[in-house]
């Protein structure tokens, strides 16, 4: 493919520390992640050593308190780190986002004792997390989950199956939502389950269109016993905890989507400058130039949208509506931009010799995870017009 290095994104960062952080991430991305991305995705290989490096570099706990090993960075900075990682390889960017999502419950709702015991290893000790909300029969309707947790003295016994779990089978800890009470959202409680707990197992990874290097699997809990000290928050508070995590997680997905779209645009621009037809570069043709301009404009709009939502979060203001908007717009943009990138490369775009087809396949999943884009529209509409009448 053409050797035409893209220009780095010109970022507005709040501190010199944040600029140094982005430089570190770009260096890791260019040296350790991007060169192996295509080969490892094709082979379905999960880059665990990359996550070990990210942990050692302080990049797996960026938005959390320094007291517990986190980076204490604002979301405005953390999300731009995710974007850089996802542009190099979505398996890595999304993996960091999921790990942050899995750590959210304990970091936000755990007791001081729980945080002191578990967070340092989760944020900087080389561990990798997974978030377990969805089930085979409850995806968008997460409040109908059936996994049960039954109290047995000072312990809980968890039984059920979780589905579509990123890092399922390889995670060191699982944040699990289970039913401890009545039907509906009020009967759900959150638990921190060790990855090596007796009775916990994973099915074979799903066979997916893209992101083959990131394992997605069902997780089975067959009488898994955990102490009450691993219950996060109050009994019945689990659904509130889950939704709180998803509001933040949707911003992570939005940033990853912008990263994939930016990578696709960079590939398309590089190709268009090098590919010649009718005696000149195809980048000279107005129809193609307009496509590139539209792609770049939508990416910039998506970046501005997720950063605006992040700044609301950092200021302690409500941001759920804006998070849903960012997830919706950025992932739809990623799908459109990657499709256009394949079109610009023509027949070459359809081959695995160029990265455009991989970006297109990866972009699709971002419209589905952490609430489909139809669910995002429902969330936004509820903020605008109130709950649906029954």
Commentary on this structure:
This protein is of the alpha+beta class. Helices cover 51% and strands 14% of the residues. The strands form three sheets. A four-stranded mixed sheet has the order 1-4-5-8. A four-stranded antiparallel sheet has the order 2-3-7-6, with no helix packed on it. Strand 4 and strand 5 form a beta hairpin. The model has no long low-confidence stretch (mean pLDDT 96).
In short:
It is built from ten helices and ten strands. The chain has 390 residues and is α+β, with helices and mostly antiparallel strands. The model has no long low-confidence stretch (mean pLDDT 96).
Outline the low-pLDDT stretches.
none
Helix-strand string:
HHHHHEEEEEEEEHEEHHHH
What is the strand content?
5-15%
Class by alpha and beta content: alpha+beta
Quick one: biggest sheet?
Answer: 4 strands, mixed
Read across the widest sheet, the strand sequence of neighbours is 1-4-5-8
- Count the beta strands: 10
Shape: globular
Please report the distance between the alpha carbons of the first and last residues.
Answer: 56 Å
Keyword list:
390 residues, alpha+beta, four-stranded mixed sheet, four-stranded antiparallel sheet, 10 helices, 10 strands, 14% strand, globular
What is the element layout, followed by pairings?
Layout: H1 16-43, H2 48-56, H3 75-88, H4 90-109, H5 112-124, E1 129-132, E2 148-152, E3 155-166, E4 173-179, E5 188-194, E6 200-202, E7 216-227, E8 231-232, H6 238-274, E9 276-277, E10 280-281, H7 286-314, H8 320-345, H9 356-366, H10 373-385
Parallel strand pairs: 1-4
Antiparallel strand pairs: 2-3, 3-7, 4-5, 5-8, 6-7, 9-10
Helix pairs in contact: 1-3, 3-4, 3-6, 3-7, 4-6, 6-7, 6-8, 6-9, 7-8, 8-9, 8-10
């Amino acid at each position: 493919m053409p050797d035409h290095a893209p220009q780095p994104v010109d970022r507005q960062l709040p501190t010199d520390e944040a600029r140094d952080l982005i430089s570190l991430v770009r260096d890791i991305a260019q040296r350790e992640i991007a060169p192996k991305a295509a080969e490892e995705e094709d082979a379905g290989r999960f880059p665990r050593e990359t996550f070990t490096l990210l942990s050692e570099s302080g990049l797996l706990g960026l938005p959390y308190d320094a007291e517990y090993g986190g980076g204490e960075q604002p979301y405005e900075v953390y999300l731009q780190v995710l974007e850089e990682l996802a542009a190099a390889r979505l398996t890595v960017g999304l993996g960091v986002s999921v790990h942050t999502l899995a750590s959210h419950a304990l970091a936000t709702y755990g007791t001081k004792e729980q945080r002191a015991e578990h967070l340092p290893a989760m944020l900087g000790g080389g561990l990798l997390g997974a978030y377990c909300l969805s089930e085979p029969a409850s995806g968008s309707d997460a409040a109908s989950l059936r996994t049960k947790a039954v109290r047995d003295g000072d312990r809980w016994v968890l039984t059920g199956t979780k589905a579509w779990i990123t890092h399922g089978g390889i995670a060191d800890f699982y944040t699990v939502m289970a039913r401890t009470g009545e039907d509906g959202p009020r009967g759900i409680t959150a638990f921190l389950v060790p990855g090596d707990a007796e009775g916990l197992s994973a099915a074979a990874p799903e066979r997916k269109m893209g992101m083959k290097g990131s394992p997605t699997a069902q997780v089975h809990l067959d009488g898994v016993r955990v102490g009450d000290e691993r219950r996060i928050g109050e009994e019945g508070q689990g659904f509130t905890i889950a939704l709180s995590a998803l509001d933040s997680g949707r911003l992570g997905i939005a940033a990853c989507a912008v990263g994939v779209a930016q990578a696709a645009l960079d590939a398309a621009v590089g190709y268009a400058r090098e590919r010649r037809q009718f005696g000149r570069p195809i980048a000279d043709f107005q129809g193609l130039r307009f496509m590139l301009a539209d792609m770049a404009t939508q990416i910039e709009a998506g970046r501005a949208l997720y950063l605006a939502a992040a700044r609301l979060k950092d200021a302690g203001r409500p941001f759920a509506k804006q998070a849903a908007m960012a997830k919706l717009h950025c992932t739809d943009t990623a799908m459109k931009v990657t499709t256009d990138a394949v079109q610009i490369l023509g027949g070459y775009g359809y081959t695995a010799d160029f990265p455009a087809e991989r970006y297109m396949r990866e972009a699709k999943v971002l419209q589905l995870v952490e609430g489909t884009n139809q669910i995002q529209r429902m969330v936004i509409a509820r903020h605008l017009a109130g709950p649906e009448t029954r």
